Amino acid sequence: MCAKRRLQPPTRDTELEMKQSRPLALSSEEWGQLVSLGVPLVLPLKSSIDPNQSLLQALLQRLSPEAIEDLMKSREGSALRSWLRALHDHYPQIWRRFAGHLDSWLCTQELSGAEIKLRRIALASLAGYL
User: Fold this and answer.
1) CA of residue 124 relative to chain centroid, distance
2) pLDDT (tens digit, 9 = 90+) per residue, 69-111?
3) Residue 37 to residues 2, 12, 23, 60, Cα–Cα distance (Å)
């Protein structure tokens, strides 16, 4: 269960540190894999990868809060956050096994109305292979 946490507004020093230490974005291949695993996005190139737990494990273990923080103001970030929340809420054993390192980050993320709809779409995809 996520505990409510008060966030301090960033100072100029922390904003500079964040800009200097930003990781690279996800590759198009990784996005294709994430979409095949159920991230509710429509990409121009469809991936022909069959979703399974080993691919899910590999991708979740490569994700880090720092790597996805840059995406949070984009539509891709909304879709990824919705998918992660669906996985966290409905498949807690899988979440703890493969993505426990993202737990404290995800608990600070709130879903908008549109992201709740995306979460439902992600759940339908996740149910197909989990």
Assistant:
1) 16
2) 878 778 888 899 999 999 999 999 999 999 999 999 998 888 8
3) 24, 38, 23, 11
| Tokens, residue 48 | 């022909």
The total of other beta-carbon atoms located within 10 Å of residue 107's CB is: 14
Per residue, what are the HEC states of 52-111? CHHHHHHHHHHCCHHHHHCCCCCHHHHHHHHHHHHHHHHCHHHHHHHHHHHHHHHCCCCC
Give Cα 5 to chain centroid, integer Å.
20
CB-hemisphere CA count at 13 Å for 125? 24
Conformational region of residue 61, where left means phi above 0, alpha means psi within -120 to 50, and beta covers everything else: alpha
Judged by DSSP in three states, 37 sits in coil
Pairwise CA distance, residues 130 & 126, whole Å: 6
Kindly report the pTM of this predicted structure.
0.75
From residue 20, alpha-carbon distances to 64, 69, 114 in Å are 17, 13, 31
